[in-house]
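Hey all, sorry for the wall of text incoming. These are the two entities for the joint prediction.
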Amino acid sequence: MTVEALQRRYGAVRACDDMTWHAPGGGITAVLGPNGAGKTTAVECAVGLQRPDGGAVRVLGTDPWLSSADHRARVGVMLQSGGLPNGSKPLRLLAHLASLYSAPADISSLAGRLGIDAFAGTTVRRLSGGQKQRLALAAALIGGPEVLFLDEPTAGLDPHGRLDVYDLLQQVADGGTTVVVTTHSFEEAQALATHLVVISDGRTVASGSPADVVGERTLESVYFELTRKAR
Amino acid sequence: MSAPSTPRTRVLSQARFELGTLLANGEQLLVSLVLPLGALVGLAYTTAPALGAGRRIDIAVPGVLALCVISAAFTAQAIATGFDRRYAVLRLLGTTPLGRDGLLWGKALATLGVEVLQWVVIGGVGLALGWQPHLPGLPIAVVFLVAGTWAFVALALLLAGLLRAEGVLAIANLVWVLLLVLGGVIVPRISMPGALATVAGVLPSAALADGLRAALGTGALDGAALLVLLAWGAVAAAVAARTFRWSD
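and here's what came out:
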C-alpha cells in the first residue's frame, strides 16, 4: 500500500499536503500523529471514501477511488466513525456482512474471540463504546482481508480489551494480512508495529522500522520532537 | 484470495437486511402499515370526507394503496437513509463488496418488499370490507406501483442526501401528512376544490393515486398521471445524483 505526494484539501485547510509513506506487505504499520494531522483523511483516501486532490494512493496495485467489488473484498475497513446500523443486532449484522464474501471468516469463532457473544442479543444503539469497537473490528475482519485498515481500533477499550485486540491483530498479520492502524497510543504502536509512520500537519515527518525511527530513544520523545518541529 | 459473493447474493442479502430493519422499527411500521390500515377502516365506516361518485370502498382502497407507497418509498426510506448517513453506515457499506450501487439496489428491493406486504394486508382488508377491484387492471396497477416507488425513492434520497437526519425526520413526516390531506391521495383530485385540484394535478401523490384508481376501478391506463410520475422520478433522480452526500 503506497501513498505518494497525496494532497487533500477541505476549503483552505490542507489535510494531506504532499504526504508520502507506504505500508510494507504482511506487516503492521502504525500511523501516529496529533489530532488533525491527516491520518483519517489518508485512510479514507486509501479505502475509496475520499478522492485525492493530487498525488496517488495505491492499495494492492489499485486506485481505491476506482475500486471494484473484487478489490473491496480484499480490503477490510474499520472507520473511526463506526458505520454500524443502529437498529441491528451484532450477529445478524455479521451474518449479513459475511454474505457479501465468497469465503468469509467463521462468525462464531470471530465473535467468541472478540467477546461479542456476551452482547449478541443487544441492538447496536444500546452497546457501549467498547462493545461497538469490538463489533466494528469483527466487521472489518469478516471477509478475511488481505489488507486491513483500522482507524483508532482500540479507542474506548479497557486494558483487557486492548490486549485482546493486540493479540488478534498480531495473529491476523502473522497470517499474511497487511495491517494499517492509525493511533494516538504509543503503547499500541510499540506493541504492534513492524513499521512506523509519523505525520503532522498533513505531512510525513518520519517513516521506517521502529528501530530506524526511534533508535536508542523512546517513541514518545521522538514523537513529540518530530510533531513539535512540524507545528 | 478474498473474493466477493455474486452481485445477486449481495443485493438480495442487503434487501433482506434492510427489510428486517424496516419491519423491526416500530415507528416506521406505524407509518407504513398501521396508519394506512386505520385510514382504510375509517374511510370504510364513515361518510367523511366525501370521495365523489362511485362505491366509496372502491375509491378508498386504491388511495390507501398509494398512501402505502408514499409511506414506504418516501417517508420510511428518507428517514432510514438520513440516519444511515448520520451513523456512517452508508460509508462503511460503500467500502465492502456491496458498494454504493448495491446499497441503492438493496434499498429499492427492500422498499418493494415492504410495499408487497402493505398491498397484501390493505388489499385483503379492503376485500373483506367489500372492495371489488377490476382485476384485468392489475398489471397497470403494478406499473404505477413500480413508477411510484421509483419517483418517491428518488425524492427520499434527494431529501436524505441534503439535510441532517433530524431535518429529514421532520420534513419527511410533514410531507407525508400534507400529501395525505392535500395531495389527492385519499380524496381524489376531482373531488377537491378548484385551486387545490389544479395544484394536486402536478403532484406525484395525486398522479399515483389517480393511476391506481383508474387501473383498479375500470382497468384504464391514466397516461397523463404516469407521465407526471415519470417526470418527478427523472428530475428527482437527476438532482439526487448530483447533490447526494454520503456523509454528514
